[in-house]
Protein backbone atom coordinates (compact mmCIF):
# COMPACT_ATOMS: atom_id res chain seq x y z
CA UNK A 1 0.00 0.00 0.00
CA UNK A 2 1.15 3.52 -0.79
CA UNK A 3 0.25 6.11 1.82
CA UNK A 4 0.23 9.89 1.75
CA UNK A 5 0.05 11.33 5.25
CA UNK A 6 -0.47 15.08 5.67
CA UNK A 7 1.63 15.60 2.52
CA UNK A 8 2.36 19.14 1.42
CA UNK A 9 4.40 20.44 -1.48
CA UNK A 10 5.29 24.08 -1.69
CA UNK A 11 7.60 25.12 -4.52
CA UNK A 12 10.38 27.68 -3.89
CA UNK A 13 8.30 30.40 -5.61
CA UNK A 14 5.62 29.96 -2.94
CA UNK A 15 3.13 27.91 -5.02
CA UNK A 16 1.39 25.32 -2.86
CA UNK A 17 0.76 22.46 -5.31
CA UNK A 18 -0.40 19.89 -2.73
CA UNK A 19 -1.79 20.67 0.68
CA UNK A 20 -2.41 18.31 3.60
CA UNK A 21 -2.98 15.26 1.40
CA UNK A 22 -4.08 12.07 3.15
CA UNK A 23 -4.59 9.19 0.73
CA UNK A 24 -4.15 5.42 0.57
CA UNK A 25 -3.45 3.51 -2.64
CA UNK A 26 -4.30 -0.14 -2.01
CA UNK A 27 -1.84 -2.84 -3.07
CA UNK A 28 -2.63 -4.55 -6.36
CA UNK A 29 -5.26 -2.00 -7.36
CA UNK A 30 -5.49 0.99 -9.72
CA UNK A 31 -5.97 4.38 -8.08
CA UNK A 32 -6.66 7.25 -10.45
CA UNK A 33 -5.80 10.87 -9.64
CA UNK A 34 -8.24 13.05 -11.53
CA UNK A 35 -9.02 16.76 -11.50
CA UNK A 36 -8.70 19.99 -13.45
CA UNK A 37 -5.37 21.26 -14.75
CA UNK A 38 -2.91 22.50 -12.15
CA UNK A 39 -4.54 20.91 -9.10
CA UNK A 40 -1.48 18.91 -8.02
CA UNK A 41 -1.97 15.46 -9.55
CA UNK A 42 1.43 15.17 -11.22
CA UNK A 43 3.18 16.70 -8.22
CA UNK A 44 1.57 14.05 -5.97
CA UNK A 45 2.55 11.24 -8.34
CA UNK A 46 6.17 12.38 -8.50
CA UNK A 47 6.50 12.42 -4.74
CA UNK A 48 6.01 8.64 -4.76
CA UNK A 49 9.25 7.95 -6.66
CA UNK A 50 11.11 10.97 -5.21
CA UNK A 51 11.29 12.93 -8.44
CA UNK A 52 9.90 15.59 -6.11
CA UNK A 53 10.29 15.77 -2.33
CA UNK A 54 7.40 16.80 -0.07
CA UNK A 55 7.89 19.91 2.04
CA UNK A 56 5.69 18.37 4.73
CA UNK A 57 4.23 15.00 5.72
CA UNK A 58 5.22 11.52 4.59
CA UNK A 59 4.87 9.31 1.51
CA UNK A 60 5.38 5.64 2.35
CA UNK A 61 5.31 2.37 0.41
CA UNK A 62 4.30 -0.59 2.55
CA UNK A 63 4.94 1.46 5.66
CA UNK A 64 8.45 2.58 4.63
CA UNK A 65 9.02 6.30 4.17
CA UNK A 66 10.27 6.72 0.60
CA UNK A 67 12.83 9.24 1.86
CA UNK A 68 14.58 6.46 3.80
CA UNK A 69 15.39 4.76 0.48
CA UNK A 70 18.06 5.63 -2.06
CA UNK A 71 16.19 7.18 -5.06
CA UNK A 72 17.84 4.92 -7.65
CA UNK A 73 17.02 1.72 -5.71
CA UNK A 74 13.50 2.99 -5.01
CA UNK A 75 12.86 3.67 -8.71
CA UNK A 76 13.86 0.17 -9.74
CA UNK A 77 10.72 -1.02 -7.97
CA UNK A 78 8.56 1.65 -9.58
CA UNK A 79 7.69 1.68 -13.29
CA UNK A 80 7.03 5.12 -14.76
CA UNK A 81 4.99 5.85 -17.88
CA UNK A 82 4.42 9.35 -19.26
CA UNK A 83 2.38 10.97 -22.02
CA UNK A 84 3.97 10.53 -25.49
CA UNK A 85 5.80 7.55 -23.93
CA UNK A 86 9.08 9.48 -23.51
CA UNK A 87 11.04 6.93 -25.55
CA UNK A 88 14.70 7.38 -26.47
CA UNK A 89 14.44 8.44 -30.14
CA UNK A 90 17.86 7.07 -31.13
CA UNK A 91 17.23 3.61 -29.68
CA UNK A 92 15.21 0.83 -31.27
CA UNK A 93 11.98 -0.38 -29.69
CA UNK A 94 13.78 -3.39 -28.25
CA UNK A 95 16.62 -1.30 -26.82
CA UNK A 96 14.11 1.09 -25.29
CA UNK A 97 12.51 -1.81 -23.43
CA UNK A 98 15.92 -3.22 -22.49
CA UNK A 99 17.02 0.04 -20.86
CA UNK A 100 15.54 -0.94 -17.54
CA UNK A 101 16.54 -4.61 -17.15
CA UNK A 102 20.14 -3.67 -18.06
CA UNK A 103 20.13 -1.62 -14.89
CA UNK A 104 19.10 -4.59 -12.78
CA UNK A 105 21.27 -7.28 -14.29
CA UNK A 106 21.80 -9.39 -17.39
CA UNK A 107 20.24 -12.72 -18.31
CA UNK A 108 17.41 -13.59 -20.59
CA UNK A 109 16.54 -9.95 -21.12
CA UNK A 110 16.13 -9.95 -24.89
CA UNK A 111 13.71 -12.84 -24.76
CA UNK A 112 11.79 -11.16 -21.95
CA UNK A 113 11.66 -7.82 -23.79
CA UNK A 114 10.19 -9.49 -26.87
CA UNK A 115 7.70 -11.32 -24.69
CA UNK A 116 6.70 -8.05 -23.03
CA UNK A 117 6.22 -6.32 -26.38
CA UNK A 118 3.92 -9.12 -27.39
CA UNK A 119 1.97 -8.83 -24.15
CA UNK A 120 1.30 -5.15 -24.75
CA UNK A 121 0.09 -5.99 -28.26
CA UNK A 122 3.16 -5.22 -30.38
CA UNK A 123 4.36 -7.77 -32.94
CA UNK A 124 8.02 -8.80 -32.59
CA UNK A 125 8.53 -7.50 -36.15
CA UNK A 126 8.46 -3.94 -34.77
CA UNK A 127 11.26 -4.58 -32.27
CA UNK A 128 14.00 -3.17 -34.51
CA UNK A 129 12.16 -0.01 -35.52
CA UNK A 130 12.85 3.41 -34.04
CA UNK A 131 10.12 5.27 -32.11
CA UNK A 132 9.56 7.76 -34.96
CA UNK A 133 8.57 4.80 -37.16
CA UNK A 134 5.67 3.89 -34.87
CA UNK A 135 2.17 5.31 -34.44
CA UNK A 136 1.33 7.21 -31.24
CA UNK A 137 -0.57 4.22 -29.87
CA UNK A 138 2.33 1.85 -30.61
CA UNK A 139 4.74 4.23 -28.86
CA UNK A 140 2.52 4.26 -25.78
CA UNK A 141 2.57 0.46 -25.78
CA UNK A 142 6.36 0.48 -25.86
CA UNK A 143 6.28 2.91 -22.92
CA UNK A 144 4.13 0.48 -20.95
CA UNK A 145 6.36 -2.48 -21.90
CA UNK A 146 9.44 -0.55 -20.79
CA UNK A 147 7.84 0.33 -17.45
CA UNK A 148 6.97 -3.34 -16.90
CA UNK A 149 10.41 -4.64 -17.90
CA UNK A 150 11.89 -4.79 -14.41
CA UNK A 151 8.61 -6.29 -13.13
CA UNK A 152 8.16 -3.52 -10.57
CA UNK A 153 5.44 -3.96 -7.94
CA UNK A 154 4.42 -0.30 -8.38
CA UNK A 155 3.59 1.62 -11.57
CA UNK A 156 3.13 5.38 -11.90
CA UNK A 157 1.42 6.54 -15.08
CA UNK A 158 1.03 10.22 -15.98
CA UNK A 159 -1.61 10.74 -18.70
CA UNK A 160 -0.44 7.49 -20.31
CA UNK A 161 -3.14 7.27 -22.99
CA UNK A 162 -4.05 10.88 -23.65
CA UNK A 163 -1.85 11.52 -26.70
CA UNK A 164 -3.80 9.11 -28.90
CA UNK A 165 -7.20 9.33 -30.59
CA UNK A 166 -10.29 8.13 -28.70
CA UNK A 167 -10.58 4.81 -30.53
CA UNK A 168 -6.95 3.83 -29.91
CA UNK A 169 -7.24 5.11 -26.34
CA UNK A 170 -10.21 2.80 -25.76
CA UNK A 171 -8.21 -0.18 -27.09
CA UNK A 172 -5.16 0.68 -24.99
CA UNK A 173 -7.30 1.04 -21.86
CA UNK A 174 -8.98 -2.31 -22.47
CA UNK A 175 -5.70 -4.11 -23.11
CA UNK A 176 -4.11 -2.46 -20.11
CA UNK A 177 -6.93 -3.63 -17.84
CA UNK A 178 -6.55 -7.19 -19.17
CA UNK A 179 -2.83 -7.06 -18.42
CA UNK A 180 -3.41 -5.64 -14.94
CA UNK A 181 -5.91 -8.42 -14.18
CA UNK A 182 -2.98 -10.84 -14.60
CA UNK A 183 -0.22 -8.73 -13.06
CA UNK A 184 -2.00 -7.14 -10.08
CA UNK A 185 0.42 -4.20 -9.74
CA UNK A 186 -0.14 -1.27 -7.41
CA UNK A 187 -0.85 1.50 -9.88
CA UNK A 188 -1.35 5.26 -9.70
CA UNK A 189 -2.64 6.92 -12.87
CA UNK A 190 -2.97 10.67 -13.46
CA UNK A 191 -5.61 11.88 -15.89
CA UNK A 192 -7.79 14.94 -16.35
CA UNK A 193 -10.41 12.82 -18.10
CA UNK A 194 -13.17 11.58 -15.80
CA UNK A 195 -14.28 8.98 -18.35
CA UNK A 196 -10.81 7.45 -18.33
CA UNK A 197 -10.83 7.53 -14.52
CA UNK A 198 -14.14 5.66 -14.42
CA UNK A 199 -12.93 3.01 -16.88
CA UNK A 200 -9.54 2.39 -15.28
CA UNK A 201 -9.93 3.13 -11.59
CA UNK A 202 -10.64 0.70 -8.80
CA UNK A 203 -10.56 3.88 -6.75
CA UNK A 204 -10.64 7.49 -7.87
CA UNK A 205 -9.18 10.44 -6.00
CA UNK A 206 -10.70 13.71 -7.22
CA UNK A 207 -8.36 16.67 -6.70
CA UNK A 208 -9.50 20.25 -6.61
CA UNK A 209 -7.56 23.47 -7.13
CA UNK A 210 -4.86 24.08 -4.52
CA UNK A 211 -3.94 20.41 -4.16
CA UNK A 212 -6.88 19.46 -1.96
CA UNK A 213 -8.79 16.20 -2.21
CA UNK A 214 -12.46 16.66 -3.06
CA UNK A 215 -13.48 12.99 -2.81
CA UNK A 216 -12.05 9.48 -2.85
CA UNK A 217 -14.20 6.53 -3.79
CA UNK A 218 -15.05 3.85 -6.29
CA UNK A 219 -16.24 5.02 -9.72
CA UNK A 220 -19.75 4.00 -8.72
CA UNK A 221 -19.64 6.07 -5.52
CA UNK A 222 -18.45 9.11 -7.44
CA UNK A 223 -21.17 8.82 -10.06
CA UNK A 224 -24.00 8.03 -7.67
CA UNK A 225 -22.95 9.97 -4.56
CA UNK A 226 -20.75 12.95 -5.49
CA UNK A 227 -19.60 14.61 -2.25
CA UNK A 228 -20.34 18.17 -3.33
CA UNK A 229 -21.12 20.51 -6.22
CA UNK A 230 -17.49 20.53 -7.42
CA UNK A 231 -17.40 16.74 -7.84
CA UNK A 232 -20.90 16.72 -9.32
CA UNK A 233 -19.87 19.26 -11.96
CA UNK A 234 -16.59 17.53 -12.63
CA UNK A 235 -18.22 14.12 -13.04
CA UNK A 236 -20.60 15.70 -15.54
CA UNK A 237 -24.26 16.00 -16.35
CA UNK A 238 -24.67 12.57 -17.89
CA UNK A 239 -23.52 10.81 -14.73
CA UNK A 240 -26.98 9.23 -14.36
CA UNK A 241 -26.61 7.49 -17.70
CA UNK A 242 -22.98 6.56 -17.06
CA UNK A 243 -23.94 5.22 -13.62
CA UNK A 244 -25.97 2.54 -15.45
CA UNK A 245 -22.61 0.89 -16.25
CA UNK A 246 -22.58 -0.29 -12.64
CA UNK A 247 -26.09 -1.72 -12.66
CA UNK A 248 -26.51 -5.30 -13.86
CA UNK A 249 -29.37 -6.32 -16.12
CA UNK A 250 -30.47 -9.20 -13.87
CA UNK A 251 -34.13 -8.95 -12.94
CA UNK A 252 -35.23 -7.70 -16.35
CA UNK A 253 -38.44 -9.48 -17.30
CA UNK A 254 -37.97 -10.93 -20.78
CA UNK A 255 -40.76 -10.69 -23.33
CA UNK A 256 -41.51 -13.31 -26.01
CA UNK A 257 -39.46 -13.01 -29.21
CA UNK A 258 -42.36 -11.65 -31.27
CA UNK A 259 -41.26 -10.30 -34.63
CA UNK A 260 -37.61 -11.42 -34.24
CA UNK A 261 -36.34 -13.57 -37.13
CA UNK A 262 -34.18 -16.49 -35.99
CA UNK A 263 -31.82 -18.79 -37.90
CA UNK A 264 -31.80 -22.61 -37.53
CA UNK A 265 -29.75 -22.43 -34.34
CA UNK A 266 -32.12 -19.90 -32.81
CA UNK A 267 -29.79 -16.93 -33.29
CA UNK A 268 -31.42 -13.61 -34.15
CA UNK A 269 -31.08 -12.44 -37.76
CA UNK A 270 -30.93 -8.81 -38.88
CA UNK A 271 -30.61 -7.45 -35.33
CA UNK A 272 -27.94 -4.77 -34.86
CA UNK A 273 -26.84 -5.62 -31.35
CA UNK A 274 -27.65 -8.10 -28.60
CA UNK A 275 -26.88 -8.36 -24.88
CA UNK A 276 -26.16 -11.17 -22.47
CA UNK A 277 -27.53 -11.82 -19.01
CA UNK A 278 -24.45 -10.37 -17.27
CA UNK A 279 -24.31 -7.10 -19.25
CA UNK A 280 -24.93 -3.73 -17.63
CA UNK A 281 -28.10 -1.71 -17.97
CA UNK A 282 -26.08 0.88 -19.88
CA UNK A 283 -25.56 -1.66 -22.66
CA UNK A 284 -29.25 -2.59 -22.65
CA UNK A 285 -30.50 1.02 -22.63
CA UNK A 286 -28.13 1.95 -25.41
CA UNK A 287 -29.37 -0.96 -27.56
CA UNK A 288 -33.03 -0.15 -26.98
CA UNK A 289 -32.49 3.54 -27.72
CA UNK A 290 -30.69 2.89 -30.98
CA UNK A 291 -33.02 0.15 -32.23
CA UNK A 292 -35.90 1.35 -34.46
CA UNK A 293 -38.32 -0.81 -32.45
CA UNK A 294 -37.09 0.37 -29.02
CA UNK A 295 -36.21 -3.20 -28.09
CA UNK A 296 -33.08 -5.27 -27.44
CA UNK A 297 -32.61 -9.04 -27.79
CA UNK A 298 -30.98 -11.05 -25.03
CA UNK A 299 -28.85 -14.02 -26.14
CA UNK A 300 -27.14 -16.90 -24.31
CA UNK A 301 -23.45 -17.88 -24.55
CA UNK A 302 -24.09 -19.61 -27.89
CA UNK A 303 -25.72 -16.48 -29.32
CA UNK A 304 -29.23 -18.00 -29.23
CA UNK A 305 -32.02 -15.53 -28.54
CA UNK A 306 -33.57 -15.94 -25.08
CA UNK A 307 -35.96 -13.01 -24.98
CA UNK A 308 -36.71 -9.41 -25.76
CA UNK A 309 -36.79 -6.26 -23.63
CA UNK A 310 -38.33 -2.88 -24.32
CA UNK A 311 -36.85 0.34 -22.94
CA UNK A 312 -39.94 0.65 -20.71
CA UNK A 313 -38.81 -2.59 -19.01
CA UNK A 314 -35.47 -1.00 -18.09
CA UNK A 315 -37.20 2.06 -16.63
CA UNK A 316 -39.56 -0.22 -14.67
CA UNK A 317 -36.61 -2.17 -13.28
CA UNK A 318 -34.85 1.05 -12.24
CA UNK A 319 -38.06 2.20 -10.58
CA UNK A 320 -38.25 -1.10 -8.64
CA UNK A 321 -34.63 -0.76 -7.51
CA UNK A 322 -35.13 2.73 -6.05
N1 LIG B 1 8.55 23.52 -10.35
C1 LIG B 1 7.47 24.26 -10.04
N2 LIG B 1 7.58 25.47 -9.51
C2 LIG B 1 6.49 26.21 -9.18
N3 LIG B 1 5.22 25.79 -9.35
C3 LIG B 1 5.04 24.56 -9.89
C4 LIG B 1 6.15 23.73 -10.26
N4 LIG B 1 5.65 22.56 -10.77
C5 LIG B 1 4.30 22.67 -10.71
N5 LIG B 1 3.94 23.86 -10.18
C6 LIG B 1 2.57 24.36 -9.93
O1 LIG B 1 1.95 23.48 -9.00
C7 LIG B 1 0.56 23.33 -9.32
C8 LIG B 1 0.25 21.85 -9.50
O2 LIG B 1 0.91 21.37 -10.67
P1 LIG B 1 0.74 19.85 -11.19
O3 LIG B 1 1.57 19.69 -12.40
O4 LIG B 1 0.93 18.92 -10.08
O5 LIG B 1 -0.80 19.86 -11.59
P2 LIG B 1 -1.63 18.79 -12.40
O6 LIG B 1 -2.89 18.61 -11.64
O7 LIG B 1 -0.84 17.58 -12.68
O8 LIG B 1 -1.95 19.58 -13.73
P3 LIG B 1 -2.03 19.09 -15.28
O9 LIG B 1 -3.26 18.26 -15.38
O10 LIG B 1 -2.16 20.40 -16.02
O11 LIG B 1 -0.76 18.36 -15.57
C9 LIG B 1 0.32 24.19 -10.54
O12 LIG B 1 -0.18 25.43 -10.11
C10 LIG B 1 1.70 24.34 -11.15
O13 LIG B 1 1.80 25.54 -11.87
Automatic annotation (TrEMBL):
UniProt KW Nucleotide-binding keyword: yes
Natural source organism: Kineococcus aurantiacus
Keyword entries, A-Z: ATP-binding, Nucleotide-binding, Transport
Protein's recorded name: ABC-type quaternary amine transporter
Entry's EC annotation: 7.6.2.9
InterPro entries recorded: AAA+_ATPase, ABC_transporter-like_ATP-bd, ABC_transporter-like_CS, P-loop_NTPase
Family affiliation: Belongs to the ABC transporter superfamily.
UniProt-recorded Gene Ontology molecular function terms: ABC-type quaternary ammonium compound transporting activity; ATP binding; ATP hydrolysis activity
Residue span, ABC transporter domain: 2-235
Taxonomic superkingdom: Bacteria
Keyword check for Nucleotide-binding: yes
One Pfam family here: ABC_tran
Lineage: Bacteria, Bacillati, Actinomycetota, Actinomycetes, Kineosporiales
Signal peptide as annotated in the record: none
Coiled coil spans: none
